[in-house]
Amino acid sequence: MLGATLRHTTPAGAAAGRIVEVEAYPPGDPASHAYNGLRVRNASMFLGPLRAYVYRIYGTSWCFNVTSEPEGVGAAVLIRALEPLDGIALMEARRGTSVLRDLCRGPGRLCTALAIDASVDGAGLASGGPLELEPAAGPVRVGLSARIGITKAADRRLRFYLRGSPYLSGPRSLSP
Length: 176
Fold this sequence. Notes:
The chain is built from two helices and eight strands, in the order βββββααβββ. The chain is globular. It is mostly beta strands. The model has no long low-confidence stretch (mean pLDDT 94).
């Protein structure tokens, strides 16, 4: 998914960004919301690949994930950061800042910038829908590190990022 473009079209307009940072939560991962099985809260994780799994964290921010496994197997990839590409004025208004680097740097910020919330939980990411995932245009230089902000299986190197991107979240020491 690194290098792919995530686009969300709403009545206010479209906003899009290039995916520059993700974290994987594969089957059997104790840090995954699917670890203890299917629940009402995580049901969209089990719908099959390329669906939105959206949840609220800390009661304040939305997080957007892309499901990754066949139907019935719960797993997803958290989209942690985007490089803003389209609809930047709309993103700035939603986020209340004109600092381009900060518009989509972090999962909560990118959801606010793209107006992603529970209303799109479970939505497919095929072209023509309100949420679209467009393939990367070419090869990317991928970095790898431990995931950010978790306590279970925190040492697993399942955070992937575009090397050299100024739009990454987390401490710079994690993204050499």
